[in-house]
Amino acid sequence: MKKNVILLTAVMLSGFAFSQVGVNTPSPKASLDITAKNPKGTTTSPEGLLIPRVDRQRAQSMTGVVNSTLIYVDNVTTGSRTGNALNIDAVGYYYYNGTVWAKIDPGIPVNDNLYNSNGTFTGNRTVQQSDKTLAFTSTAKTGSNHFSVAGNTFSVDAANDRVGMGTLIPQNKLDMGPSVGSTITDVAGKKLAVYNSTTGTSFYGLGVSGNTLQIHASSTANAAPGMVLMNTGRLGIGDPAPTVNFDLVGTLFGIKNGITANSWNNLWFNVGSNGPTINASNASDGMQFRVGSNATGTYGNGQTLRTVATMTSTGNMGVGNTTPEQRLSVVDVANANPYSGIAGFEALNRTQGVGIGYAGIQSIGTGANVSLNLNAKAAQSINLQTQAVGNVGIGTASPSAGAILDLTSTTKGFLPPRMTTAQRDAMSARPAGTIVYNTSLNCMQYWSGTAWRDNCAGSIATLSCSTVTNNGTLTKGMVASGVSSSISYTGGNGRPYSGQSIQSTGGITGLTATLTSGTFANGAGTLTYTITGTPSAAGTANFIINIGGQTCTLTRTVAAPPIPYTATNILTFNRTEKVGRAVGYYLDHTIIGGAGGPISWSEQTIDLGRGLFARLLAGTAGAGQNVIRYWIYGTPTSAGTVILNVSIGGITRQTTFVISN
């Protein structure tokens, strides 16, 4: 022990003098020079440098460790590979590099590297290529994933020269993987970017979603594409879900013959707020529509095209004419039919229509008989004329020069307007010479300027049902006898008139007014109608008289039948009520009817006053005993007396209501 202390003291004194320490040597060659006592030979005593020995947990717990500190970890079952012990995974020597304990002897063979062993980077790595190349080669003949980064993030199929992103099995030279966007705006569907901003808000590239290829230009992360191509062959521009093969959404679509600003030979389609338009510029020679008839050629190549229509900048349209001089100029180039070769207008079933040719018009269609009609809108007229003499012929190609209208036929006649007297008289304009057929009189008539004239039955100028001489009376339910009415007229023409029978109207049936045939007087006169039958009700019976070209309504009064009651026991009695006490009860009167027939009455309400009301219930009374029923109701408002009068059969009785407080 004493010897060791002396040696240690000598070492320390030597260190203080020369800043170098030697062990087993008087001449240290370094700050610490340890020389073996027996560097050679077969001596069995151990020699060497014994470094501090700790377990992993102790090394992990050290703080304030100076760089290059050396330790020997003899146990790695304690602590964990975290923090400064990240590299301590086996027993061995470790030195502190300022951050973690670094292994001096990694304990792996010299040929252990990334070419023949798997491993994990413990930090960032950089390959400095300088002016050298870095190449990965493969002689693989099978498989599909010969080089990959982070699973399917990047994959190389060297056997088939394919690169995959998002797939380990690329199917194409560049395969972006099977994932698609769940919707047309899903950011996951934006697959390949040619350009994008650092914030991802200006995407130029391709995307995929639901059987749809997306084409984006400056799209935000969740924006829909500007153009799509669907697996059905539909192309949409501005429409992410096209419903036709080419679906263009916008207000303007154009075609021009150059890309400069002055390329003004343009054709464009505009869909604005005023509706769609087709436009063309530099169309001084017209915009032409051409059609080819042969089956060969595409887009005009090998086609024989015929100009079928031309639109000029002057607003003229030509069909079969490339230089139209009218708003619509149609040329029948085949001269197929002089009356229908230019245009045809047919019904949907094509059974009838109108054809126009260069020489006239005619009816067309598949029907056996097709009419040709001219109709003017509302009350407007149809004018027919010729520029030569102004006459019109129907049934003849050579109308008489002396007639404005020449109707020619050996099998048909002329049919003038047919109307009733009322319709005739309702005509607002009837110049002298107007001809009609009066269906009320079955007579051809003309207007003389002051009156309707004819050569048929007699006529009159006026017919007055307001100055009537009535004979006899009419009573409900009783057979008419000796009843007649005489009606005055003026302007008679002395011609005969036919007899007529007219049924009653106005809610009363069962009556007939009969006029026997006769002759109108020349001038004023009367027509006497005999009224027969049994009236169905009391009131006013109407008879609409139409004769001699005039109309009026004859009215006759039908009286109610005689009161059928011969006896009554309508009682007079009093009732007492209280102010403020509500009442509600039936009040019946018994009557005895006679043999004159039944009588009916309708429901009615009577205001008795002082807050009381009486409602007469509808009913019918006949022979024998009957009941008239009232419903008395209300709340008396003040004291006093009110009276209900019951009157029937010529006898009146009273019910007095005395209201007390």
Q: What's the CATH class of the domain at 462-559, please?
A: Mainly Beta
Distance between the amino and carboxyl termini = 144 Å
- The CATH architecture of the domain at 462-559 can be named as Sandwich
Summed up, the helix count is 3
Q: Give the helix proportion (percent range).
A: under 10%
By secondary-structure content and strand pairing, the structural class works out as mainly beta
Mean model confidence by pLDDT: 82
Fraction in beta strands: 35-45%
Radius of gyration: 61 Å
CATH topology of the domain at 462-559: Immunoglobulin-like
Number of beta-strand segments: 52
Kindly report the spatial arrangement of strands forming the biggest sheet.
11-12-13-14-15-16
Q: Can you offer a commentary on this structure?
A:
- This protein is mainly beta and 661 residues long.
- Among the domains are: 53-103, no CATH class; 418-454; 462-559, Immunoglobulin-like, CATH 2.60.40; 567-660, Immunoglobulin-like (Sandwich), CATH 2.60.40.
- 4% of the residues lie in helices and 41% in strands.
- The chain is built from 3 helices and 52 strands.
- The strands form 15 sheets. A 6-stranded mixed beta sheet has the order 11-12-13-14-15-16, with no helix packed on it.
- Strand 13 (212-219) and strand 14 (227-230) form a beta hairpin.
- The longest helix is centred in the first third of the chain and has 17 residues, at 2-18.
- It is elongated and about 180 Å long.
